[in-house]
Amino acid sequence: MVKKVEHQRVDTGTLLEWYRSMVFVRRFEEQAERSFRRGKIGGYLHLYSGQEAVAVGALAALRDDDVLFASYRDHAYVLLRGTDPGVVMAELYGKATGVCKGKGGSMHLFDVPRGFYGGYGVVGGHVPLAVGAAYALRYEDGGDRLCVCFLGDGALNTGAFHEAANLAGLWGHEGLCPVVFVIENNQYGMGTSVPRSSAVTVLASRFGAYDIPNEQCDGMDPAVVYEVVRRGVDEVRRTGRPWAVEALTYRYAAHGAADLLQPYREKSEIEEWRERDPIIRVERRLREAGALDDAKVDEIGAEVDRTVEEAVTFADASPEPAPDELFTDIYADGEVRP
Amino acid sequence: MVKKVEHQRVDTGTLLEWYRSMVFVRRFEEQAERSFRRGKIGGYLHLYSGQEAVAVGALAALRDDDVLFASYRDHAYVLLRGTDPGVVMAELYGKATGVCKGKGGSMHLFDVPRGFYGGYGVVGGHVPLAVGAAYALRYEDGGDRLCVCFLGDGALNTGAFHEAANLAGLWGHEGLCPVVFVIENNQYGMGTSVPRSSAVTVLASRFGAYDIPNEQCDGMDPAVVYEVVRRGVDEVRRTGRPWAVEALTYRYAAHGAADLLQPYREKSEIEEWRERDPIIRVERRLREAGALDDAKVDEIGAEVDRTVEEAVTFADASPEPAPDELFTDIYADGEVRP
Amino acid sequence: MPELTYRDALKGTLIEEMDRDPRVLLLGEDIGVYGGTFLVTDGLLTRYGRKRVIDTPISELGFIGCGVGMAMLGLRPVIEVMTWNFSLVGADQIIQNAAKIRYFSGGQVGVPMVIRGPNGAGVQLSAQHSQALESLYGHFPGLLVAAPATPADARGLLRAAIRGSAPVIFLESASLYGVRGEVPAGEHLVPFGCAAKVREGRDATLVTHGRMLHLTLAAATRLAADGVECDVIDLRTLRPLDMATVADSVRGTHRAVVVEEQGAMFGVAAEIVTGIYERCFDDLDAPVVRVSGADVPMPYARNLELLAQPNEAKIVEAVRRTVA
Amino acid sequence: MPELTYRDALKGTLIEEMDRDPRVLLLGEDIGVYGGTFLVTDGLLTRYGRKRVIDTPISELGFIGCGVGMAMLGLRPVIEVMTWNFSLVGADQIIQNAAKIRYFSGGQVGVPMVIRGPNGAGVQLSAQHSQALESLYGHFPGLLVAAPATPADARGLLRAAIRGSAPVIFLESASLYGVRGEVPAGEHLVPFGCAAKVREGRDATLVTHGRMLHLTLAAATRLAADGVECDVIDLRTLRPLDMATVADSVRGTHRAVVVEEQGAMFGVAAEIVTGIYERCFDDLDAPVVRVSGADVPMPYARNLELLAQPNEAKIVEAVRRTVA
Ligand SMILES: Cc1ncc(C[n+]2csc(CCOP(=O)(O)OP(=O)(O)O)c2C)c(N)n1
Ligand SMILES: Cc1ncc(C[n+]2csc(CCOP(=O)(O)OP(=O)(O)O)c2C)c(N)n1
Ligand SMILES: [Mg+2]
Ligand SMILES: [Mg+2]
């Protein structure tokens, strides 16, 4: 579970935990890709590598009773909310022990007890859900929980986003829509760059059309993301009004693990962004602060690898879903007489 | 057919013709309502009364080879493009002589030879059509025709609008989308006022999110609408980029002729807007200019009434569609072997 | 039993369920200040306030999706679509989210939600406003589909829908809102998946639902006058679909006619006809006949519109053919 | 005849039609720079330029609607939906505008447009990405629906679709793009509404379309080994639906099995089964059997996904039951 910040100061200890979290997410994704290549994971697999600072910084600013919605690129959020890596990997493996019993897979992770209400596969389709969920959180008076909606740059071009954002703006006027929109602008929707898909390229600015306060921030530094999101979160919690942040970040891997060609971008562009890699940046900062040295780096790496290996072992050893699972969870038990 | 302006000056003669056009549209709608009450017209009937200045001013700024798309509140556009009032009334009457053979009715008027590509019943649903049509007009090089899309305030809250506006902005960057958006902000979408349906109330401002230049104007004065739209039209024709205007106007009648109650607004509000009635305003101006007196007013009224009566007579006398028309126009002739 | 209109049966049930359970709330276009296009929610804004009776912008995809999110967080939204035609812009939220979230979340969260409004043709509303969509939504597992034909069933099925735990497609009809009928008082509840035999006969089985029930009953009466007695079965819900009741009847009559408002191609009757043959192949003395709407976009002209729709005469004619 | 993959048959036909008619243009997500998710349009951006090969934002409702507007103005857009699952956000433009404009404009303007992309399940794409939607779109008059199963038909039907004057729902399959087959060269064109008898037999008629054809043919071969000879009919288009060819066959075999990828409830097979009984009631010696996908949202786990889908064994078993 990602380290929360005490008395709103990002001290070295916290930063070190975030470093560990980012390394963990990175290694988990690298392992997922290896498992995909070995045929252990099927379907679509969307890796988060490069974007770790966004999830780590944003989730650090949340409370455990806040709720989250995201797209199919959703591994990091559940891992950082504290879901056991084994049951996450087991879901990717399509096993009965998976967090969704193997029925959802990589794109549809859920951990409702931890407030993660799912990864969704239709671009933009989860945004209305998040807005409705936010309304529900203020439906009973006195509540101060909020809802965070992670969405990609491409999702802003969908009607679902537009209609939901307008509803959020309207309900926000009555203090009934505590939703935080976190746009992860990783520069591309599959092979289409932001300038080729959005008529305006400062995506945060689009929220002006819905009377939703918004800002842009560096999405490659968890401390920056945290500071910005924390301010936003405090405001949203207090006012019950929506707020949006566009985090400028980058996807290192192909859109999906199955995509081999990437004719839409230059290797050099990837290299440039890698120089701003959040893990390397935080590592450097921690070394300067004397909180990290080669030995510690290796130690953390080894620890994290062990966790990931254990997750794989668990997933591998887990059974497939029982055949009759095919027909369960379509309706609540007893809802429909067979 | 609405009078075009020579050498871009709205002289008294032109204004007089516009006055005549507005009176004509008003009387046509009043007759349509009477026919509806008598059961001659069925289904939904959406009257334009109060908004005449928008259609008259905007259409006066267009060329005969420009194309138009609109919602179901569409009588004025075809009448002002010069469609025979008889075939328009016949369509409302569901007769074989109707402009759409009686198959479309009030909400779906079309006069393709005059560039009117239809009235549409799904709110916002025609906006993508207009954007695609605009692209088609620039598809072959050298074209300088443009497309006008009339839409209501309520339509701006639909995903169809958002997705189409973003596409217009993008294609406009390449000079490939000569579309003019005319938002007829008549203050309500059925019973819902703009502040209760849109998070921002200056609707023109929404177009900023799509990099589309936009302005607001008084929609109760045809000369004002004309001046603003003419500037916009010149720009769009020259650049191939979209442009939007929000015309502030008002709907006098109920949303549809079938709606009896209007609990959402005060009679006094309707009265206030009626004081800005475009017909009365233009009449006053023409009287001041000595171009109009009681006699002339009566003469025009009588002329217009005669035209409307002839339309009714024609519609009444026209036959119903032949039964086999039920199965024609689903596909082009010969497209599908029975 | 009190006599109520279909409209008042719906409204009364909404009030009872909202009084009973504070988690029940309403969303839709013009359901509050305006009172609902068909006045089903008239007065409820004053009674329950803006938080529970939400007037929405014209954003079906948005507010249906918001309803899904509200339901996931424990509320019980009842959403009005002004007509089901407009649900097509919101279909993705119904089909991709509402119907499937319970499944792909491995049962972690459900979507207890009702989407209600008039389905099918009105009078001269032309092609975009005159569609019956039961087979479209009926196809997707995870959804439930109800189509009450009477005030009593409107009340009983709406209550079951609101108290249930699944997303429900609740298909009303503009032409039924004014229809009066006896309605059991109290906690009258009609479980999903139970068709009703509303008329007894031995010569043929007529199967239908929703608005078509009334035409079918009129036809049955007319036929009875000539000595042709029909079982008339009102399916009431299309998912679950109670084919057992239909099959029982057909085993007795050996003949069946299925009446639907939809066009025949991939319409609702095709599934029912197929289901009958799957259960009663050896019992049938004549082919099962479909009486369907014409396979055309609905025209505006009244004479064409009438030609396009099923009516008493067409049903009578079909039954005569099967019993001949 | 040259051997081509289904993908190259589609791509080659697009090239030929774009070379032939400058009004033909392509729209879709990642069809240009990226070359298309399934590489059907690979290289066409370089060949025809940005004006004719348009990479769109993620806006199905918007760009399908734009395609309708382009078609109304005389262009012939061929739109790629990355998969048909995503067409659900654009369904309103297809059902309310594309299908009906010719009708409610009284024939003043048509919508010559093709919407193409993979339909049905892939491998472990789970519930939101694994739907077969033929019955959903097949229901609406004004649309045409094609589902080519072979490279030859992909070529012939796509050409007919592009040259036609109606909006066409063109259903491909991710699992077919790599399939090779002989493809007639030149202006090979397959008219809509003509099913193909792809195998001759006397014992039973197997009716199917699209991806399922290959499983059905495999089953037929297996059955032949035990002396059960089947007519196999590939419908090729679902609207128009060539029931005459199906009925001819059933009159000879007296038995029929209909294979579909969709779940059975209100799926495509129900219409075909009903159509068979409407034409062949007295010819049938056994009930017509449906082999359908499971009536569930598609699960992710491979073992469950396989259980949910039709396969050779299920088809063989169904045929054995009917001929028993
Ligand atoms: C409505 C819809 N259209 C198309 C797709 C196919 N698709 C999957 S992901 C994706 C790109 C999304 O880009 P973005 O929102 O920026 O998220 P990212 O993948 O960059 O995290 C597309 C087009 C989809 N899932 N849903
Ligand atoms: C998608 C959709 N939802 C709901 C409706 C029902 N409806 C018809 S007109 C209308 C109001 C439209 O308001 P506006 O866009 O301002 O146009 P106006 O009627 O004021 O000219 C509504 C909600 C519809 N036709 N389409
Ligand atoms: Mg992106
Ligand atoms: Mg309005």
Notable characteristics:
heterotetramer; A: 338 residues; alpha/beta; six-stranded parallel beta sheet; two-stranded antiparallel sheet; 11 helices; globular; C: 324 residues; seven-stranded mixed beta sheet; five-stranded mixed beta sheet; 14 strands; 37% helix; binds thiamine diphosphate; binds magnesium ion
Topology:
The complex is a heterotetramer, with two copies of chain A (338 residues) and two copies of chain C (324 residues).
Chain A: H1 12-37, H2 52-60, E1 67-71, H3 75-81, H4 85-92, E2 116-120, H5 127-139, E3 147-152, H6 159-173, E4 179-185, E5 188-189, E6 192-193, H7 194-197, E7 214-218, H8 222-239, E8 243-248, H9 267-274, H10 278-288, H11 294-317
Parallel strand pairs in A: 1-2, 1-3, 3-4, 4-8, 7-8
Antiparallel strand pairs in A: 5-6
Helix pairs in contact in A: 1-2, 1-10, 1-11, 2-3, 2-8, 4-11, 5-6
Chain C: E1 3-5, H1 6-20, E2 24-28, H2 44-48, E3 53-55, H3 60-72, E4 76-80, H4 91-98, H5 101-104, E5 113-118, H6 134-138, E6 144-146, H7 151-163, E7 167-172, E8 180-182, E9 196-199, E10 204-208, H8 212-225, E11 230-234, E12 237-239, H9 243-253, E13 256-263, H10 268-280, E14 289-293, H11 302-308, H12 312-323
Parallel strand pairs in C: 2-3, 2-4, 4-5, 5-7, 6-7, 10-11, 10-13, 13-14
Antiparallel strand pairs in C: 1-8, 6-12, 9-11
Bound molecules: thiamine diphosphate (2 copies) and magnesium ion (2 copies).
One thiamine diphosphate (TPP) sits between chains A (71, 73, 121-123, 152-155, 186, 188-190, 251, 255) and D (29, 58, 60, 82, 86, 89).
Overview of this protein structure:
The complex is a heterotetramer, with two copies of chain A (338 residues) and two copies of chain C (324 residues). Chain A is an alpha/beta fold. Chain A contains eleven helices and eight strands. In chain A, strands 2-1-3-4-8-7 form a six-stranded parallel β-sheet, with helices on both faces. Chain A has a two-stranded antiparallel sheet with strand order 5-6. The radius of gyration of chain A is 20 Å and the shape is globular. The mean pLDDT of chain A is 97. With 324 residues, chain C is an alpha/beta fold. Helix content of chain C is 37%, strand content 20%. Chain C is built from twelve helices and 14 strands. In chain C, helix 7 links the parallel strand 6 (144-146) and strand 7 (167-172). The longest helix of chain C is centred in the N-terminal third of the chain and has 15 residues, at 6-20. The N and C termini of chain C lie far apart (40 Å). The mean pLDDT of chain C is 98. Chains in contact: A-B, A-C, A-D, B-C, B-D, C-D. At the A-C interface, strand 2, helix 5 and helix 6 of A face helix 3, helix 4 and helix 5 of C.
